[in-house]
Amino acid sequence: MASTYLTRTQSSTGSETKGTFSAWVKRAGLTTASNMYTSYQADNEFCDIQFNSSDQLQVVVKIGGTDYLDLRTTRLFRDTSAFYHILVAFDSTDGTQADRCKIYVNGTRETSFATNTNNVSSSLNMRINGSSQDPYIGSWHNQGNYFSGVMSHVHWVDGTAYTPTTFAESDSTSGIWKPKTAPSVTYGTNGFFLKMENSGAMGTDSSGNSNTFTVSGNLTQNVDTPSNVFTILNRLQRSRKNTNNGGDYLFKGNLTFDTSSANGMMAVVLGTMGVQSGKYYWEYKVITNTRLEVGISQANVMGFTDPYYDLQTFSTIAMNSSGNIKGRFIGGSSWDDYATGTSNTTNDIIGLALDMDNKALYIHKNGTYLSNGTAVGVPTSGSSRTGSLIEPFAGSRDDYIPDGEFIFPYVHDVSTTGVAKAEFNFGQGYFGTTAVASAGTAPSEGGIFEYDCPSGYQALCTKGINSF
Question: What is the pLDDT of residue 312?
């Protein structure tokens, strides 16, 4: 959602003493202020809910330039792999001053604050529902602090301070905190409910109030939801060899790997989900193939600055640094003998089908599966492993996946000066901000891909993993 926000012009006045914000959010960027909601009247008159640059959850009410409320949680929110349910309830009429703003995360109230400024007097006008206080989703006013990540089921309630169980509940089987898709809510005059279920009208209000928002920027709909969480590239599971170079290299919801602004940092990044069993499929689009390596890896690759030369790690390369798709399983510095040598270029889409049950990996280029030097890959071949780019363990060879290892998607820029860029689709349905051109056969547990997901395979998502 970076550089994108939603807003509407508010013309009616509702309750200025009571309101509730509820949303499910999945972070992508860290250590940068990331706003979820702002009720803005002026630079010195606003109510604001954000993850601040210290990764604290922060709620501010500023009136006449004075902070009447500034709550910053002690704990930090740095998990980029899962959704948080954030609920903030305002009620300046509450008889207990400390309860005039309550913050909940995943149903549990936050009570420990690194900053705890609370000067909210009884029945204070909190600047939350006035006719001149325009709401913004995903930015502070329209001047930055754009939310980096995914937002789902965004509610604002005018006139009532609700508790988390209004909007979410514990699953009766798993105990996992999950959203109520149709909560019983009285939204009030300026309340709204943004489901974001219509890709052509993402600002549509489903509360019944018709408080529809205008979208600014390139807002992308995503199938990554609290009910089915998809893999992204892991901002917390990455490393680099060239530590003197700065700059970020994960963008667009942590699905774009791009070292062009990071001085060729020799970056190593894993996906957020690893697997020990089952069959999984994902894709990436080649943008700049110089020095780009993509494939699978075990978790301890992060302990090495140059993992494709470290004998203690292994990874299967779907593309080597010369722009050739090789399919090498690494246990040293030399290429194995089943290299395909298939070249690739900008906008080629590479598909990876990982069969963990049979310890096999198959790779296609633009829908055509590649040969391991003996046979063309057949992802559904099972134990025969026809065309697999990983061989069974055979004596001194090192091209196998040890039992018990968690295996992750992997991307690596091997250069100190070159550029590597690829856009990943783990089933979200997009490469960067561009939707797949013509979706292939989808996996049964959710996901949208450019090419057919092989029969029996799933996306790397919570429902997909749980299906095995």
Answer: 43
Residue 357 has which token pair?
A: 């049950």
CB 40 within 8 A of CB 62: no
φ, ψ of residue 102 to 5 degrees: the values are: -115, 130
- Contact (Cβ atoms closer than 8 angstroms) between residue 60 and residue 67: yes
Per CATH, which fold does 5-216 belong to? Jelly Rolls (2.60.120)
* Per-residue confidence (pLDDT) for residue 316, from 0 to 100: 56
What are the residue ranges of CATH 2.60.120.200 in the chain? 5-216
pTM for this prediction: 0.86
| CATH topology classification for 233-466 | Jelly Rolls (2.60.120)
Q: Which two structure tokens, joined as six digits, stand for 456? A: 């029996």
Contact of 356 with 331, CB cutoff 8 Å:
no
Q: What does the pLDDT average to over 235-245? A: 58
At residue 291, does pLDDT exceed 90? no
| Type of residue found at 430 | Y
- b/e burial code for range 110-121 (CB count within 10 A of at least 16 → b): beebeeeebebe
Cα–Cα distance measured from residue 166 to residue 168, given in angstroms and rounded to the nearest whole number:
6
